Amino acid sequence: MRGLKRAGIAVCLVMLAAAAIHAQVSGQIRGTVIDEEEKGLGGVKVEASEPNAGTRGATTDKEGRFRFVGLRPGVYKVTFTLPSHADVQKNAVVRLDGTASVNAKMFRIPD
User: CA nearest 32: which of 23, 41, 20, 24?
Assistant: First the structure.
């Protein structure tokens, strides 16, 4: 029984160490999307893609904010889409334990 308890504790310690290492070797992207009137734009689909890290998706909150955490370092293409507005693309450089700020202004497509 003691052996199983020690093994369980060892597994927990390894998992905690891995989480701590991951937190130190990853970064994040965050920002705000606004409309032409400078108001936060909610419901915007945001995708961050990087060839070695894949693609992550999010949707802005009612104030236009979004955030991606736990990203591998690299150059990400960030795409903003909303059916009634013109798409926007930006690049973000994610560094170890850093935060890349990417803000976008989206314009309504005329009917």
Answer: 41
The label of the residue with tokens 């032409």 reads: 36
What's the pLDDT tens digit per position in 1-49?
666 566 556 555 455 444 444 445 699 999 999 999 999 999 999 999 9
Distance from first CA to last CA of the chain, Å, rounded? Answer: 72
Does the pLDDT value for residue 91 go beyond 80?
A: yes
Helix, strand, coil proportions of the chain in percent (round to 5)?
20, 50, 30
Q: 0.90 exceeded by the pTM?
A: no
Transcribe 44-66 into DSSP letters: -EEEEEETTTEEEEEE--TTSEE
